Amino acid sequence: MKTNEELTELARRIRVHAVKMANRAGSCHVGSSFSMAEILSVLYGRIMNVRPEDPEADDRDRFVLSKGHACGALYSVLAECGFFPMEWLESFFQNGGRLPGHATAKGIPGIEVSTGSLGHGLPIATGMALAARRDKDPYRVYCVLSDGECDEGSNWEAAMFAPHHQLDNLIAIIDYNKIQSLGHVDDVLPLEPFTDKWVAFGWHVVEVDGHSIDELTSALQAIPQITGKPTCVIAHTVKGKGVDFMEDQLLWHYRTPRGEEYTAALAQLGEVA
């Protein structure tokens, strides 16, 4: 098992890769990648049963990134864990490159399903969890959603379905950074009382600091926390976490890191441009 220091370092490297990839590609979604760096670090470094040398093993845990626009972070953690060569990151979102600008399963080891159209990840993950239950397979299904995509009605159909089928092998993790593409969540369409809504639908809910290795580990190692119930982990995070001028800033949903901003971001992450 990796130490907390190793997981913190993995989260830092995820952020470094994500900002470099966006700079090279002229793309965006850096803030969305940064907010879930520790979530991915803990999942891939400590929690999930996955093996890079056998990415399609029958007993592997499944991971679905419903917020597929933040795929820079997912590609980064997969490369860091050895699912594919680190060099692939250099061609992210470029003509002829192997890594498209939204999470894509075709030809990319470790990615279970292509995502990007919001509101689809949890329904797919719920189907995977139901299949595992009916086939008596031991794997679990982890799905990371953005808070903004919880506006999508399809998520709440899955939220009703999973408790009905007692899918305690399903874990939804909400990256609750409070900002969506065009504004703050509270201004666009408020989610609160968020925890109460999931509880009312029949889920077991735990709230954590989404940047705390210990809190994430404690919540995710205890799955299922209640037998017969799916678990929703509401991870309170900060968009753009790790670079002070990006933190909690709507601008960094779509802005491309360039010039002095790019150099400053890398410096704050302990890297040289």
From TrEMBL:
Q: In the Enzyme Commission scheme, what number(s) does this protein have?
A: 2.2.1.1
Transferase listed as a keyword: yes
**Which keywords annotate this record?**
Transferase
**Pfam name, any one:** Transketolase_N
Q: Which organism is the protein's source?
A: Aeoliella mucimassa
**SUPFAM superfamilies linked to this entry:** Thiamin diphosphate-binding fold (THDP-binding)
Q: Please state what the protein is called.
A: Transketolase 1
Report a single Gene Ontology molecular function.
transketolase activity
TM spans, by residue?
none
UniProt domain Transketolase N-terminal: residue ranges: 9-249
Q: Which PANTHER family match?
A: TRANSKETOLASE, TRANSKETOLASE N-TERMINAL SECTION-RELATED
